[in-house]
């Protein structure tokens, strides 16, 4: 491969939000021009925590929304391959082979898995969730991904991928690249409630597709300094979600510095700070909204991108699986059986 490959993506559980943007999408927009880029719609990963028929029935719609959000954020469709994970059964074959290259204790040390189980209301760890990093390794290595943009939660998962790639290459010969991670500049974004990272399921998120009125309502309801009961009381900027958002999304540094100075001195109210944040977020989201409107004005475009990307990716994965089976010697076993069976059939055939 002359150009290095990047693999990234999301579970199709709904629209993407500002937390997704700072944690991964900003990196993708920046990097996809440099790498041959595959974007996975990870619906099999979704099944580890959401697997009712209703959840599965929403996959197609959520996939469209997710891809639309990514394109609206600035990813060029001509330089990105979007594909639906469940439409490529060969990934499951690779996952099965990789399961034998990692131990249960190693997977139990991945810190985010217990958090995922807890957030999904699971009292016990499902087998599929424990194997989440192994399936993720299959996703990355099936297209021979060399770089993976990651948020804070997925860094440990990709380390399992790196270990599996090294283990496979040691046992069977060089087939896979050992992928490198590219961390986001802002690993996580606190939610509007100030108590947890931004998450759709917690109701503390601002969607990339949110209109101006929705953004303003969310911002005006944001958590600030709980000890500040009046505007003339000096407030704390550090750890204050409103100022964390200003730092990320407000490019007017002079305005932000002025607000911080007055906030610390008790010379500005929360309302003014929030109103200026709402304006800054609108300015940030306006280009995304405009691109989204152009995409939505062409019905079927996103479906076509997903379909064509899935077909292309399946072709790539089939080639990878042939290499894997050949390197492991799995093809020779059946070839031997087939050849002996053919010789037996010919030897015992009744002459015409």
Automatic annotation (TrEMBL):
Keywords: Aminoacyl-tRNA synthetase, ATP-binding, Ligase, Nucleotide-binding, Protein biosynthesis
The UniProt record lists the keyword tRNA processing: no
Matching Gene3D superfamilies: HUPs, Tyrosyl-Transfer RNA Synthetase
InterPro entries: aa-tRNA-synth_I_CS (IPR001412), aa-tRNA-synth_Ic (IPR002305), Rossmann-like_a/b/a_fold (IPR014729), Trp-tRNA-ligase (IPR002306), Trp-tRNA_synthetase (IPR050203)
EC assignment: 6.1.1.2
GO molecular function terms noted in the UniProt entry: tryptophan-tRNA ligase activity
Superkingdom of the organism of origin: Bacteria
Record carries keyword tRNA processing: no
SUPFAM superfamilies: Nucleotidylyl transferase (SSF52374)
Family to which this protein belongs: Belongs to the class-I aminoacyl-tRNA synthetase family.
NCBIfam families for the chain: trpS (TIGR00233)
Name this polypeptide is given: Tryptophan--tRNA ligase
Organism: Micromonospora reichwaldensis
